[in-house]
Design goal:
The structure holds two protein chains of two kinds. Chain A is mostly beta strands. Chain A is built from no helices and eleven strands. In chain A, the strands form two sheets. In chain A, strands 2, 4, 5, 6, 9, 10 and 11 form a seven-stranded mixed beta sheet that branches. Chain A starts with a strand and ends with a strand. The model of chain A has no long low-confidence stretch (mean pLDDT 92). Helices cover 0% and strands 50% of the residues of chain B. Chain B is built from no helices and ten strands. In chain B, strands 1, 3, 4, 8, 9 and 10 form a six-stranded mixed beta sheet that branches. Chain B is globular. Chain B starts with 9 loop residues before the first strand and ends with a strand. The N terminus of chain B is likely disordered. The chains are: A mainly beta, B mainly beta. Chains A and B meet through strand 4, strand 5, strand 9 and strand 10 of A and strand 3, strand 4, strand 8 and strand 9 of B.
Chain lengths: 116, 112
């Protein structure tokens, strides 16, 4: 149980275009989801906390107009990277809070974004 | 965002030896800690967790130790295997519904 599905796993886009990443909780309802970004050989950096039915809370230094987060249902959160630039190339990972057992947080498999 | 953007240190061990991976956490108010394993190109995988009212917890081949006095967390892996090669992160949060903040991470290399 407590599976999070993240799509796409890899995406290449041109500079100036937008990319949407989806994160779905498959067998549980996630009222809260988290979005992380990870650069090569670095740790996961929290970008924002996404709450179902309300606006996302962004971490300091993360541009909310560039990284649009929508959490319209209890099983789906999306991250849209708008007007992507090469410096946005990174590994993006979502996480959902899971009620029960020891697995408080479960992670998606990540999305490798390359902006060319 | 939070977290430390430094390059990951590396721990190299011989297959069969025990591994100890250390982590210093930042927030004295954190009360729940998790160790994750991350393989290349994948999301983090849960290993073991511990709450602040405990100082030790054991799983299968893994043990987590928590020292709240010095805000230090360690992960011990017994009889390390090649399949244990990965990056290991500690993460902390306050309350189990709060933001999960990741530590620096350590690359574990297991030599055959």
């Amino acid at each position: 149980g407590a599976v999070v599905s993240q799509h796409p796993s890899r995406v290449i886009c041109k500079s100036g275009t937008s990319v949407k990443i989806e994160c779905r909780s498959l067998d549980f309802q996630a009222t809260t989801m988290f979005w992380y970004r990870q650069f090569p050989k670095q740790s996961l950096m929290l970008m924002a906390t996404s709450n179902e039915g309300s606006k996302a809370t962004y971490e300091q230094g993360v541009e909310k107009d560039k990284f649009l987060i929508n959490h319209a249902s209890l099983t789906l959160s999306t991250l849209t990277v708008t007007s992507a630039h090469p410096e946005d190339s990174s590994f993006y990972i979502c996480s959902a809070h899971f009620e029960g057992a020891n697995y408080g947080y479960t992670f998606g498999s990540g999305t490798r974004l390359t902006v060319v | 965002g939070e977290s430390v953007g430094l390059h990951l240190p590396t721990l190299s061990v011989q297959e069969g030896d025990n591994s100890i991976i250390n982590c210093a956490y930042s927030n004295s108010a954190s009360d729940y800690f998790i160790w994750y394993k991350q393989e290349s190109g994948k999301g983090p995988q849960f290993i073991i967790d511990i709450r602040s009212n405990m100082d030790k917890r054991q799983g299968q081949r893994v043990t987590v130790l928590l020292n709240k006095t010095v805000k230090h967390l360690s992960l011990q892996i017994a009889a390390t295997q090649p399949g244990d090669s990965a990056v290991y992160f500690c993460a902390e949060t306050r309350g189990n519904t709060g933001k999960l903040i990741f530590g620096q991470g350590t690359t574990l290399q297991v030599k055959p």
